[in-house]
């Protein structure tokens, strides 16, 4: 009887504390201020839903309240860290398509696209290129880390053949589109310097420097790097770590290339962000360095179009149609072009032909990384729409 | 609403428990009925109509059967027919229309009709109530609220157990409601929830990963079978654990539904351990009324095959479920008339039983019988290599998880729990373990997606 009473006391303690903890977590959802955005996941967070009879009938209210509870859960970020860490402890070295390689580097796996997507892209590019024989067209398809570190994959793990994909794309470009292939140059430098972040999918400033040199040479520019390279942070934990939940052994450092406004040289530039309708004298967004995603220091948050005008006296005017890999390259190109138009096909709804004519563009460079291009529809769509608008 | 959702854990459960414990005993059944109907309506408001219909019809016919004993047989027959009509209508509406649409030249505009949550559960509970009432086990339940609680009690609706009125009737009138029972029930609930979220869902993920491998290998095939075996047991038994735990928190005690079926020493023994509330239901309401063992051998065989066919169809409407049920019917009959005479040692019996059970799961997870037949040879190396990098990678990547899932299929943890809770230091350890397990469960709930029970709706 005494034993039963003691056991019962234990159950009472458990019951009361469990109920109290759960109640506290529930109350915190309403008492603490709602978070609007997750820098870690780069998305807006759900708020408490509006109750309507329609939303109840369709089930929207039910799903939204669940989303609200997940997104506003008081220990959400800690939960992500615990989950990733637990996976690592259990020996899991792959999470959400990201591998934790032997060296501690993280790399996103490559998935070859389906043939239909590649054909659609190729057709759209071919038609667009055929209609623009008046400008120089280039395609820089950048490899990602998985293209060079596949031998560090966990035992028996496999990933798509990124090199074969790059060969296929660059080898079947339209005649008037020149390929810019940086792989050989990367291989030469791979053991000397970090070309890719260990915790982020992007290339480092060293990788961007090699790619920029290749781009400039191909487009007939001289490689003029009159600025200064400088490290701005040593504690960058990138998107791969956030997405996978893996705890990195070491944080990354971010180096920027600072080309300053120089009245002695009569060199200056302005950067105009079309979406925000703002202008800046810097290509960097320095407040990001003290935020949760320092990588945003490279041309800021996603924007559909950026126009950079420099004081360089040249007829060379660049249109850069790009994914996020181009962000670190842009500062390295300022010395070489009078105008650099940067377009993000994910957001840009305009007409490339109109832009080319408006700014008297001489060189169009498509700059994508292989992982993004393999899953992309936005570039194909932009090329297709631009071609259609030009042929109305 | 699912047990493994934050809506349930953070809003519904605390709210229900607070209300339930705050009111005097005479109001507790009202609260339980209200929250059960709310739980049901939250998931699928339209299906609430079906549940309310079932409550009203069975309550009324039960009262009628009690009031007019001379018409007992007719009332019972009407009740059973009405219940089965509703069950068969929702279960077979889509498959039958699909079949007709294939056979007829003109296409029928199909509207898929979702099966109301727990339809089979509350239908079988209703029939059990009426049959036992007919047999004179108890008087008709006159209290409408008590009857509503019996039929709609939310902890059992998602996946059982099937509760008999004889098991809970007296408890509906008087039961011990205490913080000790609350705590004991919540511990069971927490461990059941963890079993579902941490183990069953990961088994589902492993199964899906293996099934998506491009090439068929022996290793890959066995990984599929094992991960599915873990998945289905851990999923169903976790829901039973959560149901039993929640009912205990509300003061009820019901029998166990799963008792480590993978330890069974014979196929017959397996079916006493696997979802045994269903086996007992068929035994009491079909097998015995049809004569049971008193029937001659051929009749007995036919009856057993019918019962197991229905058992298969309880879990799903496809022909593969029917085949799965019949497969076990044949095995149980073989056990009864052949294997038992061999008097094999229990260990050998357990190995064979596990093998047969695993082979049975192939029928269960295959979309069709031909697909299952195509799957079997690969398990034994026919037209399949031993292993490839992809299957080896799955084994390496998920080996520890698979081990933990296997471990959870056996009673070691349960025995450890019972041993530890005898003394204070052990109880503290259990408390901390439950807390840690709950934290991990929350982590996975907040950051992940769960394996929906809707891959089969009971």
Describe the protein's architecture and organization.
The complex is a heterodimer of chains A (392) and B (458). Chain A is 37% helix and 18% strand. With 392 residues, chain A is α/β, with parallel strands linked by helices. An 8-stranded mixed beta sheet of chain A has the order 7-6-15-13-14-12-10-11, with helices on both faces. Chain A has a 3-stranded antiparallel beta sheet with strand order 3-4-5. A two-stranded antiparallel sheet of chain A has the order 1-2. Chain A has helices spanning 2-31, 53-58, 60-72, 76-89, 115-131, 162-171, 183-189, 205-218, 239-244, 352-359, 370-375, 378-390; strands at 37-38, 43-44, 94-95, 98-100, 106-108, 136-142, 177-180, 228-236, 252-258, 269-273, 278-280, 305-310, 317-322, 339-343, 363-369. Chain B is mainly alpha-helical and 458 residues long. The radius of gyration of chain B is 23 Å and the shape is globular. Chain B has helices at residues 6-22, 25-43, 45-67, 72-103, 119-134, 144-152, 165-173, 179-211, 218-249, 267-273, 276-287, 297-315, 319-342, 346-365, 369-379, 389-408, 412-420, 424-447. The two termini of chain B are 15 Å apart. Classes of the chains: A alpha/beta (392), B mainly alpha (458). At the A-B interface, helix 1, helix 3 and helix 4 of A face helix 1, helix 8, helix 16 and helix 18 of B.
């Amino acid at each position: 009887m005494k034993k039963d009473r003691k056991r019962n006391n234990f159950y009472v303690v458990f019951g009361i504390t469990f109920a109290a903890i759960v109640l506290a977590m529930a109350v915190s959802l309403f008492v603490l201020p709602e978070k609007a955005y997750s820098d870690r996941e780069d998305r807006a967070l759900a708020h408490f839903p509006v109750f309507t009879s329609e939303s109840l009938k369709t089930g929207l209210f039910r799903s939204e309240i669940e989303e609200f509870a997940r997104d506003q859960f008081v220990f959400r970020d800690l939960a992500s860290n615990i989950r990733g860490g637990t996976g690592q402890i259990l020996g899991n070295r792959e999470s959400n398509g990201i591998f934790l390689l032997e060296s501690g580097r993280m790399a996103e796996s490559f998935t070859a696209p389906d043939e239909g997507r590649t054909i659609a892209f190729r057709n759209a590019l071919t038609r667009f290129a055929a209609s623009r024989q008046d400008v120089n067209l280039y395609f820089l398809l950048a490899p990602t880390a998985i293209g060079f570190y596949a031998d560090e994959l966990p035992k028996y793990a496999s990933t798509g053949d990124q090199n074969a994909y790059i060969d296929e794309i660059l080898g079947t470009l339209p005649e008037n589109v020149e390929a810019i292939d940086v792989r050989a140059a990367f291989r030469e430098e791979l053991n000397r310097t970090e070309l890719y972040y260990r915790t982020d999918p992007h290339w480092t400033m060293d990788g961007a420097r090699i790619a920029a040199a290749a781009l400039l040479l191909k487009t007939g520019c001289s490689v003029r790097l009159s600025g200064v390279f400088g490290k701005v942070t040593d504690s960058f934990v990138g998107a791969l770590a956030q997405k996978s939940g893996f705890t990195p052994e070491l944080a990354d450092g971010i180096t920027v290339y600072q080309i300053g406004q120089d009245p002695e040289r009569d060199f200056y530039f302005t950067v105009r962000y079309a979406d925000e309708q703002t202008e800046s004298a810097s290509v960097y967004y320095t407040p990001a360095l003290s935020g949760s995603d320092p990588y945003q220091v490279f041309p800021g948050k996603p924007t559909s179009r950026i126009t950079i005008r420099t004081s360089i006296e040249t007829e060379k005017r660049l249109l850069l149609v790009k994914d996020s890999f181009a962000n670190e390259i842009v500062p390295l190109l300022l010395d070489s072009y009078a105008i650099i138009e940067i377009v993000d096909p994910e957001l840009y709804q305009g007409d490339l032909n109109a832009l080319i004519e408006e700014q008297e563009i001489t060189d169009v460079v498509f700059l994508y990384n292989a992982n993004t291009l393999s899953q992309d529809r936005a570039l194909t769509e932009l090329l297709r729409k631009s071609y259609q608008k030009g042929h109305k | 609403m699912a047990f493994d959702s934050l809506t349930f854990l953070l809003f519904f459960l605390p709210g229900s428990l607070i209300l339930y414990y705050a009111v005097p005993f005479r109001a507790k059944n009202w609260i339980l009925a209200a929250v059960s109907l709310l739980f049901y309506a939250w998931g699928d408001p339209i299906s609430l109509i079906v549940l309310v219909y079932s409550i009203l019809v069975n309550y009324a016919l039960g009262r009628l059967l009690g009031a007019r004993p001379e018409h007992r047989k007719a009332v019972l027959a009407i009740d059973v027919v009405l219940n089965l009509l509703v069950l068969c209508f929702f279960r077979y509406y889509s498959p039958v229309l699909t079949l007709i649409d294939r056979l007829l030249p003109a296409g029928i505009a199909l509207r898929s009709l979702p099966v109301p949550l727990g339809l089979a559960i509350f239908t079988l509970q209703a029939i059990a109530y009426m049959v036992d009432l007919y047999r004179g086990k108890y008087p008709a339940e006159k209290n409408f609220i008590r009857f509503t609680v019996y039929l709609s009690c939310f902890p059992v609706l998602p996946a059982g157990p099937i509760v008999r009125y004889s098991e809970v009737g007296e408890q509906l009138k008087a039961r011990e409601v205490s913080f000790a029972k609350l705590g004991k029930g919540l511990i069971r609930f927490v461990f059941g929830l963890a079993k579902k979220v941490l183990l069953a869902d990961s088994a589902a993920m492993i199964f899906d990963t293996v099934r998506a491998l491009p090439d068929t290998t022996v290793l890959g095939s066995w990984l599929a079978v094992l991960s599915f075996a873990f998945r289905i047991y851990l999923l169903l038994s976790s829901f039973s654990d959560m149901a039993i735990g929640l009912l205990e928190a509300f003061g009820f005690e019901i029998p166990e539904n799963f008792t480590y079926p993978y330890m069974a020493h014979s196929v017959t023994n397996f079916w006493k351990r696997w979802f045994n509330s269903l086996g007992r239901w068929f035994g009491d309401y079909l097998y015995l009324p049809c004569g049971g063992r008193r029937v001659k051998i051929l009749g007995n065989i036919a009856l057993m095959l019918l019962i197991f066919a229905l058992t298969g169809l309880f879990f799903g409407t496809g022909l593969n479920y029917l085949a799965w049920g019949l497969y076990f019917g044949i095995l149980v009959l073989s056990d009864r008339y052949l294997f038992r005479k061999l008097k094999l040692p229990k260990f050998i019996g357990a190995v064979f039983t596990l093998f047969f059970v695993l082979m049975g799961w192939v029928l269960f997870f295959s979309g069709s019988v031909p697909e299952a037949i195509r799957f079997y040879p690969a398990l034994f190396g026919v037209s399949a290599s031993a292993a490839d990098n992809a299957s080896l990678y799955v084994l390496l990547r998920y080996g520890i998880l698979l081990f933990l899932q296997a471990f959870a299929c056996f009673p070691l943890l349960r025995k450890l729990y019972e041993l530890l809770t005898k003394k204070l230091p052990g109880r503290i350890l259990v408390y901390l373990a439950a807390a840690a397990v709950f934290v991990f469960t929350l982590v996975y709930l907040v950051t992940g997606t769960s394996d929906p029970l809707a891959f089969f709706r009971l």
